[in-house]
Amino acid sequence: MQLSTLRRGLHPSAILLLLMSGVLAIAGCKVDKVTFNRIEEGKKFLSADQPFQALEYFEESLTRNQEKDRQPEAHAYLLVAYDRAAKKVGENHPDAAKYNQKRDAQAKVVAGDRASLDTLVAILSQHDLASQSAASLLVSLGSPATPSLLETYGQNSELSGQILDILEHIGSDAGPEVAKAIDGGSLQPANHLRLIRLLGSIDGPASQETLARLAQDSSQSESSQVEAAAALYRLGDKSHRDRLIAALDSADVDARRAASNVAVHLNESPSTSVLLPHLSDTDAAVRLGLVKALGKHGKDASVMASLIGVLRKDADTEVANEAGRSLTTFGSAAVVPVLDALTTERDWPRRQRLVQVLKSAEVRPGFNQDLEYKLYEYYDKKETHPEVKRDLALLLKELEN
Known about the structure:
- The chain is an all-alpha fold.
- Helices cover about 70% and strands about 0% of the residues.
- Among the domains are: about 40-140; about 175-180 and about 195-265, no CATH class.
- It contains 24 helices and no strands.
- The model is unreliable at about 1-10 and about 15-35 (pLDDT under 50).
C-alpha cells in the first residue's frame, strides 16, 4: 500500500506515529546489535586448536581502534597462536620457518609488556593445548616472565605447582626474582617454604646468598631455616647434614617434611636405625620422603621388612605405593619376603601392590622353580579376588616365558 493511500485513510497524527515507530525500530536494532570482537572470536578457534584462523583474528584486532585497550591480551594470544601454528604444521613443513619467525618476533613484543605477560600466565589455567604452549613460551621467555609468574603464584593456588615447575625450568635466571618474593613477606607460609625449596633446584648467586642467610636467621621459623639448609645441601653444601637428620625429631611438621624430603639426596647413607623409627611419623609427607630415602640408602633385611610393613599397613595410598617402588630396589632378594607377605595379606589392594613388586623387572629374576610353584599354588588354591588373580596369571606367564 502506498503512502498516498495511507494518507487518505489515516489522520496526520497517526501517520507521524507510524513514521516515528519505524525510526525507533531501526534505532533499536542498532542498539541491540552485539559488537563483533576479534579477540573473543580468535579465542574460540584457539580453544578448538585451529590456530591459523585464530591468529588472523588476533592480528586484525591489533589494527582496530575499538579494540585498542585490549592489545596486550591480543599480543599474548597471538604469540600462543603462532606457536600452535608452528607445532601444527610440523618442523618439516615449508611454513614452519615462517611461523617460528613470527613467534620469535612476537615473543620479543610480549617480553617487554607486563600486561601481555600477565595474560600469558593466565592462559595456563585453560588446561588445553594453548596452555601447554603458554607454559613452554614462559620458560623460553625466562627472567622477564618471572615477576608475572610469581604474582600469580601468590594468588592462584590451582596454578602454584605448574608455576613452580616453569620457574625451575627457567633456572638460575629466575633466582633474583624468587629471592625477592621470599623476602617480600606477602606469601602464605606454605608457598613461602615451597619457594625456598625451589632455590635448591636453581643454583646461582642469588639462590646461594638467600639460602645461606635464611638458614642462619633466627627470626625465621624453624621450618624456613631447615628448608633453606636442605636447599643448600642439594646445591652442594654438605655442612648441614647433621642438622637435617636432627630435624626429623622436630615438633615443627614442616621442618620434618623438609628434612625427610632431602634425605634421599644425602651423599653419605644415614644409618637406617636413625630413619626407621620415623616411619611412624603422623605426617604422610614425612613418611613418603623417608620411604624414598630407604629405597636408596637401606639395603639390609630390616629395611626390607619395614618397607613391606609400610606397604601393608600405611593408610596413605601414595606412601604405600612408594614403599612398593622402594622394595624393587632390593632386586632378587625381595622375592621371598614379598611372596611370604602376599600369602598372608587379607586386604586385596595390598596384595595387588605386592604382586606388582614381584612383577617388576628388578625382582622377577629372583624366582626359581620352587618359588614359582609356591606362587602357582597360591594362585590356584587361595587367591579369590579377580583383579589380583589376573595380575598373578600375567606374572606366572612371564615367569613361564
